[in-house]
Amino acid sequence: MQIGVETSKAVDQRRVFVVDEDEITRAALQFMLHDEIETHELASLDEAYAKGTDWLTPDVLLLGVSILKTRGPAVIDEIVARYPAIRVLIVTGKEDEEVAIAGLKAGAHGALVKPLRLETVRKKIDTILGRDGGAALVQLGGL
């Protein structure tokens, strides 16, 4: 089902990896994004690293806050070391705000806060990829 899909976005050959331990969150994000961008849902970073080879590298990684809780803020550096051009967004609920802020301070590029809404998720992805007519989102130092 294609809801408000722009064809130019659907064929721009960018991809998103949704990495979250929560199967429902992964499925919801994959459903919201798959019409406009190649989207892969994965339960762990190890799965993402195995899938994200030279020919299938992600442009955006949506990182579930549960992984950030388990592995700590240093996981952001690990992801960026593996994929230098990647943009990392933390998927979080308000109850995990402190963990998400630690991830942002460690270098994540932004956050998606639950409840997730189709238009909000798509707009955030467009913004971070510079597909909304403006410049791509830039992480500022010194948070």
Automatic annotation (TrEMBL):
It holds the Pfam family Response_reg. Gene3D superfamilies: 3.40.50.2300. One of its GO terms (biological process) is phosphorelay signal transduction system. Residues 15-129 form the Response regulatory domain. Keywords: Phosphoprotein. The keyword Phosphoprotein applies. This is Chemotaxis protein CheY. The lineage of its organism: Bacteria, Pseudomonadati, Pseudomonadota, Alphaproteobacteria, Sphingomonadales.
